[in-house]
Design a protein that fits this description.
The protein is about 15% helix and about 35% strand. The chain is built from 1 helix and 22 strands.
């Protein structure tokens, strides 16, 4: 490989190492808990980190938005979770993701909605529980009051408005089961 090629490829590696250092020093102190070996690479927004619990070995990539709306909000992420770029998790009611989850680019997981009378106000829509080994596809939206069972898959751009059974694959708007 040429020197020029190495320079072009180096920045992601350098960002990861810098972010690993920030995660070990700053995030471990600021978050409610922050697991060994977890890294957040250049987040877009982190609000109320003391109400967030990140498991061990998590990889959370650029421009992630992690937000707890108020003092009762909670975000809990299990071990070895992997979040692509531009993922947003906004907690009004508690949001829990299990171990080994993959959340693809641009997905939104939110347990809040804007009030119908005053659009500036946010209201809770119910807790979200996402099981172990769940895949949430690119651009998918998971709304409040939903449970997604272990090993389930949510297709790209799907909007999950009701529970998803363990091992089930859902696609579409609103998300519906596919396959056998």
């Amino acid at each position: 490989m040429t020197v020029l090629g190495r320079l072009v490829e180096a920045p992601p590696s350098l960002r990861w190492h810098r972010s690993s250092l920030v995660s070990r020093t700053l995030y471990r102190r600021a978050f409610g808990s922050f697991g060994e070996g977890s890294v957040i690479v250049r987040p877009h927004i982190i609000r109320r980190p003391q109400q967030m619990h990140i498991g061990s070995g998590c990889a959370i990539f650029e421009d992630v938005w992690l937000q707890c709306e108020h003092d009762q909000s909670r975000i809990t992420i299990g071990d070895r979770a992997n979040f692509g770029r531009c993922v947003e998790i906004a907690s009004t009611d508690p949001i829990t993701l299990g171990d080994d989850c993959v959340v693809a680019f641009g997905a939104l997981i939110t347990s809040g909605d804007h009030d119908r009378a005053d659009r500036h106000q946010v209201r809770a829509t119910g807790p979200i529980t996402i099981g172990n080994g769940v895949f949430i596809g690119q651009g998918a939206i998971v709304l409040g009051g939903v449970t997604i069972g272990d090993g389930a898959s949510v297709g790209a751009n799907a909007v999950v408005t009701r529970d998803v059974a363990p091992g089930q694959t859902v696609v579409g708007v609103p998300a519906r089961p596919v396959g056998g």
